[in-house]
Protein: Beta-lactamase family protein
Organism: Candidatus Agrococcus pullicola
Amino acid sequence: MPDPHRSDAAHDFETLARRAMARALPTDVRERARGGVAAVSDGAGNVVAHPFGAAHAETPADADTVFRIASMSKSFLAAAVLALRDEGRLDLRAPIRDYLPEARLFWQGEAVDVTCAQLLCNRSGMPEDNAWADRQLDLSRDALQAYAAAGLTLSLPPGSGYQYSNTGMALVGAIVEAVTGQPIEHVVHERFLEPLGLAHTAYTVADLPNDTPVAEGYRTFDGGREFRHEPFLKHGAFGCIGGMLSTVGDIGRWMRFLASAFTAEPEHPHVLRPTTRLEMQSAFTPAQIPAERAEQLESAGYGYGLVVEQDRRFGRILQHAGGLPGWSSHMRWHAASGTGVVVFANSDSFGAGTRATEILRSVLNDTNASSARIDPWPEALDAAKLVDALIRSGGSLARLGEFAAPNLLPDVPAEVRDRQLAELTDRFGDPLEQQEPLERRITSMPNAAELQWGVACAYGDLECSIRLVGLPTPALQSLKIAVAGSTSD
C-alpha cells in the first residue's frame, strides 16, 4: 500500500533509481561477485538500495551489510588533515620532514622535500603502487617508519605530475598521528563518524556494533564460475588509506555532507567548514581522462582525497573508487543536485566504478539534471531570453541590440547567423510553440556568465550557448546555436 506521507517527488526518484540500477546490474554483471549492493541517494536524504547475491556463504546481502570500502577511505583521511589545517595545527605547504623528521625522499639520487599537500593530492612524485600496497593494510607503523627512514625513491620530480601513491597517503596518516598524538582511526571517529552518525563505519570489524552483518571478500579468476574466499587483512599503517568498512547508507550520508557544501545551507558546518569541503572537491592535480570517458569529460583531476571530474553535460562530479583483493567499491555524486551513487561488491573482478558511473549518469539524464547551482547574472538571463525569443519567432539575430558586445556581430555577421539558423530549422523543423520556461530548459551553467539551454523543434532539438563579458554592463560576447549533443564549434 502506498505511503500516504510520501511525496510524489520521492516516489518518482525511487522509480528512476530502481530502473537505473536494474539496467546497470543485469545477471551477467551480478555474477562477477558473490554479492553486493548499489544505492542511489538524493540531496534530500532519500536512499534507494538494490542488494544482490550473498554477503558470505549463503547469507543474502542487504542494504545494511557492511563492505570493505578500500580507497574510498582516503576521503576521510583528507577531511581529518584539512580539519587540523583549519585549526592551525598542520601546514599543508610545509615539507613532511617538519612532522616526520626521519622521512627521506630521493629524486635521481638527491634528497628532496615533499609537502603534505603534494602527498594529499598525489603530485609528490612517488610512483603508483596499487599492486604492492593492496597487500599492505596490516603493515606496522614501525615498518612504515623504517621504509621512510631508509629512503623512498620518487619516479617524478615533486609537484610535476599525477601519480596515485598509497604509500604517500599512508605517510599523510602518519603525519596526522604525529600532530594529534592519537591513532588516525580515533581522530576520524571522533571528528566525523560520531558527529555525523555514521554508526556502521569503522576501520575494523571489532569496532562495529554487535550483530552488524559483514560481507566477506572473494576472488574469481574465471569470470565468476568459481569464487575463492579472501581473508581480511588486519589494520595497520596502511589502514587509513584503504581499510575502512561501511554501508551504503553511511556512505550516502557522507556524500550528502560533502555535497551540501555546494548549497546555501551546508549540513553540519561545525564538523568541517563548508569552504574546506569545497576545497576537498576541487582538482589540484590534473589527471589523464580514460579513453572510454573522453566524450563525456572535459577534464579530470585529483583534489584532496577525491577525484574531480568535469562532465561536459552535468558539470562537476566527485568520486573515488576502492579496490582490494576480494573487494570492489565506488562512490560518486553530482555537485549541483547532490545526487549520489554507491556500489559495493565482494569481488575485485566486479568493476563497481563502471556500474556506479552508469547508474549516476542514467539518473541525471532521467531527471534532466543541470550542471550547477549558480544564479546567472540578470543580464545573462535577459540575453538568453531574447536569443530564445528570436529563435522561436524567426526574428533576425541582428536585433540583439544593446545586449551584444562590440565583437559579437563583427565576429559572425547577423546575416550569416540567420542563414545558419535557417539551415538548422530546415533540417529539424520550426521550434515548437509550446515550450517550458527558459529557466527550466537550462542544461548547463558553468558560471554566472554562461548559459546553455535547449529549444525543441519539430524533428529534433537545438542547443543554444551564450557567454557574457564582465564589463560594467555585462554584454553578450559569444553565441552558438547547434544540434543538441554536437561538440563542434
About this structure: The first helix runs from residue 8 to 24. The domain at 378-483 is CATH 3.10.450 (Nuclear Transport Factor 2; Chain: A,). The longest strand covers residues 47-56.
